[in-house]
Amino acid sequence: MALDRRALLGAGIATVAGLRPAWTSAPPRIVCLEWTAAELVLALGITPIAVGDVAGYREWVVEPELPAATIDLGSRSEPNAEIVRRLRPHLVIATRGYGIDIATFASLAATFELVFFSGAAPPLTQGALELLRLGDRLGRADAARATIVQSEGAIDAAASRMAARRGERICIVSMFEEPHLRIYGAGSLFAAVTDRLGLVNAWSAPTNAWGFSTISFDQLAKVGAARMVVLTPISRAAERMMKESGLWTSLPCVKAGPPLMIPAVWPYGGLTAAARFGRLLAERFAFA
Question: Strand ranges (DSSP E) for the chain?
């Protein structure tokens, strides 16, 4: 079911009332310690001056595009505080759950923490509320609302393209933790999108707070003949296994058809990531 936009926007305004930018210059100097924060800031039309693990963002998140001049803060789990200090940002933004204590940056600049996958609301709803909250903090409330409408529209468009596929069973996996993989189920951003597309997620086992389970390859037999969707990039070991393993070729979900390889989408992102996933999935299914 699509989000109730009027109720959501009204709730968002009530949630963030009173938070206003503490600067007057334009554009603000924003530092994002990790990728989800960067995705949301870029979606609001602001270019962060620095981001944790810039190369990783370009490989695993992709959209919105990160400008070439963006300064790299190093590891997302241990961003370089000295670089942050020298940059003298107006605001440092992080997302809860990545092992970063935002309070450690409070002496360097004002801070703001995003909250995703807290269980307070479904992923798409919480993503929209956090975007509204951030938009209000950055003085970009209109841009936040516009991004919600655009993202919703993109998912609706993907659902229209997938109308003939409604009811099909799929499983969605990432393969970068050899000898295991991540399979996305209840509570994940991907499952929220595929529900909107009318697809059936074949992985019904319990998932963690981020909406995925870590399993061995042989456990894929549990999903039966569901069509497999694989998020790239994947490990070289996984590439070899897919070419050479008899166990792999015997799996019902592999026999059901060649895995649908999807370009990188950040599984723990916001509405931009959700819209990207819906669009790419619809494009890939069009040739399946």
Answer: 30-32, 50-51, 71-72, 91-95, 110-114, 169-177, 180-184, 200-201, 212-216, 227-231, 260-262
Closest by Cα among 102, 98, 83, 110 to 35: 98
Nearest residue to 111 via CA among 95, 127, 98:
95
- Mean residue pLDDT of the chain comes to 91
Put residue 172 in one of left, alpha, beta given phi > 0 → left and psi -120 to 50 → alpha.
beta
What's the CATH architecture for 162-285?
A: 3-Layer(aba) Sandwich (3.40)
pLDDT for residue 25 is more than 90: no
For residues 56-72, one letter each, b for 16 or more C-beta atoms within 10 angstroms of the residue's C-beta and e for the rest, the string is ebbebbbbbebeeebeb
Radius of gyration of the chain (CA): 20
Give the count of beta carbons closer than 10 Å to the beta carbon of residue 54.
Answer: 19
Give the pTM.
Answer: 0.90
Residue that has been written with the tokens 């942050």 in this structure: 84
Domain 5-158 has CATH 2.60.40.1120: no
**What is the pLDDT at residue 8?**
54
Kindly state the tokens that stand for 70. Answer: 């963006």
